[in-house]
Design goal:
Elements (H helix, E strand, L loop, with lengths): L1 H19 L7 H10 L22 H15 L3 H11 L4 H9 L5 H6 L3 H11 L1 E2 L2 E2 L2 H12 L6 H23 L11 H11 L6
Antiparallel strand pairs: 1-2
Helix pairs in contact: 1-2, 1-7, 1-10, 2-5, 2-7, 4-5, 7-9, 8-9
């Protein structure tokens, strides 16, 4: 979907911006590829009625058909579908491994680990909301609204995402302390040129 393409391009642009400013060696190629393909299976879980403007010009019924095709081929787990697609298109084991570890439920393990590549990808994903690059705080506030249905109550959702936000801020401090930029340097205007550049990013 165009909206999903743009999300992944924005995440990859945030990842590239961070990698370009790292003071220590980091595998930027793995970071960018993992960002570009980390949500490839997400269509299987989308509520396609939530943002009807993002379905144009094809429309709701077209994307429902595509959703059925993806579910039939990859199942109903967006995470498993994303990993399967990454393997199918020939991404390296190291990139597939990063994609397999991206997600809110993995954030604590990611923060405690020593893979800067994984941390950058996880953080970059946490900086991109539905309509653009936002602060970490705003991203998790948006997530509460989008994913409340996964919890018994709004309070449960708020508590869960408050925990994720705390871990996200820890990752933010850890990786940005090794760069020459701050969180305020990451915004729509700073990543826009990189988004255009990444349309042509090579897989190999």
């Amino acid at each position: 979907m165009p909206s999903l393409q743009l999300h992944q391009l924005r995440v990859a642009a945030v990842g590239k911006l961070i990698c370009d400013n790292f003071e220590n060696p980091v595998n930027a190629h793995d970071v960018i590829l993992a960002c570009l393909f980390h949500d490839m299976g997400n269509i299987v879980k989308f509520d396609l009625t939530l943002y009807p403007d993002l379905l144009e010009p094809e429309g709701l019924e077209y994307w429902r058909g595509k959703q059925r095709e993806f579910v039939q081929k990859y199942g109903t787990s967006a995470h498993a579908a994303s990993v399967a697609i990454a393997q199918e298109i020939g991404l390296s084991d190291s990139v597939v491994s990063i994609i397999d570890r991206v997600g809110f439920s993995e954030m604590e393990r990611t923060a405690q680990g020593d893979s800067r590549e994984l941390q950058v990808v996880a953080y970059a994903d946490c900086r991109v909301a539905t309509h653009g690059v936002v602060s970490l705080e705003d991203r998790f506030d948006e997530a509460i609204g989008r994913y409340t249905h996964r919890y018994q109550t709004v309070e449960d959702a708020s508590a869960a995402y408050a925990g994720y936000k705390k871990i996200g801020l820890e990752i933010e401090r850890k990786i940005l302390s090794e760069t020459s930029i701050t969180s305020n340097d990451i915004h729509d205007a700073s990543v826009a040129p990189l988004v255009e550049e990444l349309w042509e990013y090579p897989l190999a």
